[in-house]
Structure formats: C-alpha cells, structure tokens
Amino acid sequence: MQDAVVLANCIYELPRNPTPQDITQAFAYYKSERFPFAKTAYDTSHRLASIVKQNWYYSILRALLRYLPKSVFTRSLQVMYHYRPQATFLPPVQDKGQIKPAPQPSLLRAQLARDNATVAAAAALAADVNHEAGLESSLNPPQRHDMDASSLYTTSSTAAGSAVTTVIHKEEVEGAIAV
Question: Does residue 152 share a domain with residue 71?
Fold first, then answer.
C-alpha cells in the first residue's frame, strides 16, 4: 500500500505532457523515497522469520527475548511505524499518533508546488486588479507563519510616486487557480 501511495504521488507530480526524462525522474524520486524503507521492512521480516525457526539456537534466542527491556521493543515499533506516506493530491491527514512521522519528500515537493502556484496566482490577480487601475504591481507574499492566520495577500503598487496597497482575499486566488 505504501508503494502505491508513493508511486501515485510521483505520477501526480508529472506535467500534463511528460517527456521520457520526466518519467525517468519520477521513478528516480520513487526509488529514492521508497527503497530505504522497503529494504528495512524486508530485513525486519527476514529476521522475524528466522526467529520462529525450530532449532536449538533460535529456541534460546526466543527465550532471551523475553528478558529484553520494553524500550527495545518500543524502539523497534517506532522504526516500523514512523513511515506513513500520504497522498499529496488529497487533504493531509492529521497526525494523532505518539510516533512522529518520517519526512516525506513527495509531500514536501507537492506543498512547495502548491505554495508557488498560490503566489503566482495572487501575483496574476494583483496584476489584473492594478492594470485596471493603471498601476505597476509587485507582490509581497505572506510569510510562512502568516499563511494560516491571515486570509489576505497584499500587493504594493506605485503610480506617479504615490503608494497604493491592494488587498486580495485568498478565496479569489484559489478561484483563479481553479480556473
């Protein structure tokens, strides 16, 4: 399932008309993101399968496992459960677990692309608004900490030496992106 989510994210990032290089890059992203976790899962499964073998060595090993501290098992669970990929084309799932999720490169790339698209759409909308008023425009995107608290983008414009500030609601920007 995790392989499918990561592969879907990489395919979703492809442009409308992908070139062979784009497709190769998508599979390279997929391998770089998924391979280390898949190898770890395979190695863990192989070790657990060897523990259940029925010979004297593994019988002693199973007996000794009962005396290991709980922290060893907690750490192994953290390693197993910290990788939880999310689909980038769906709303993010709120993290409610005790184990912090591992960074997901495809999710970070998608967030960066969405942020860039939002700023570009705000700039285009501000240019349209200011063009109608005969003003030159430069977009001042909100800082990252303002993204959640504020629902506005502001642009600064100049005309004949006077400064004008245009306020654009995020709903207008998101509407412009959807069009």
Answer: no
Q: Do 85 and 106 form a contact (C-beta atoms < 8 A)? A: yes
Farthest CA pair distance, the chain = 90
Q: pTM above 0.70?
A: no
Q: Do 97 and 125 lie in a common domain?
A: no
Phi, psi of 67 (to 5 degrees): -100, 5
Q: What is the pLDDT of residues 21-61, one digit of tens each?
A: 999 998 998 898 889 888 988 888 888 888 888 888 888 88
From 41, 69, 103, the end of a domain falls on 103
Structural domain including 27 reads 2-103
Q: What is the side-by-side order of every strand in the sheet holding 152-159?
A: 136-140, 152-159, 162-169
111-139 residue pLDDT tens: 787 777 777 777 777 777 666 666 554 54
Number of domains in the chain: 2
Provide the β-strand partners of residue 165: 156
